Amino acid sequence: MKKVALFIISLLTWTCLDWPLSLVHFVIGIAASVVVVFVVGDLCLEHPEVWRQPKRYFYYFTLYLPAVVWEMTKANIDAARHILHPGLAFRPGIVKVKTTLKNEVALTALANSISYMPGALVVDIDQHNGFLFVHWNDVKSTDVQTTTKIIVERFEKILLKVFY
Q: Whole-structure pTM over 0.85, yes or no?
């Protein structure tokens, strides 16, 4: 029953985003909704009671989204600076960062938040030990605490409010 509800929500979201509706687009929306249910359904339905708490949505829309947009803007300006000034040195590498998030959905949100930024990409997650491995175009430190403070801390505080 939960998967049926997720299917309906996905299809309604698709329909709203794809307005005006046509038969071909509606069939594609059905296929996409089925994929959503089978690929991420277990992630969304692991603890469905958390999705019924309005304060989580408040934190998401008032804290998390603005933080992501702000960090993305800063990262894009930094990327543009490197493009416009090719003489600036890059120090690419993979760094290890620590997280206190344990929930799969929260970890996925954190990994996506980091990967949205130009110059950073989460390449692996060690969920049991609480580490993420991030490819970073401009490594400022290899110390786990320092890189965690620079990369993870800004999102983790907010995601703790959203998902826990």
A: no
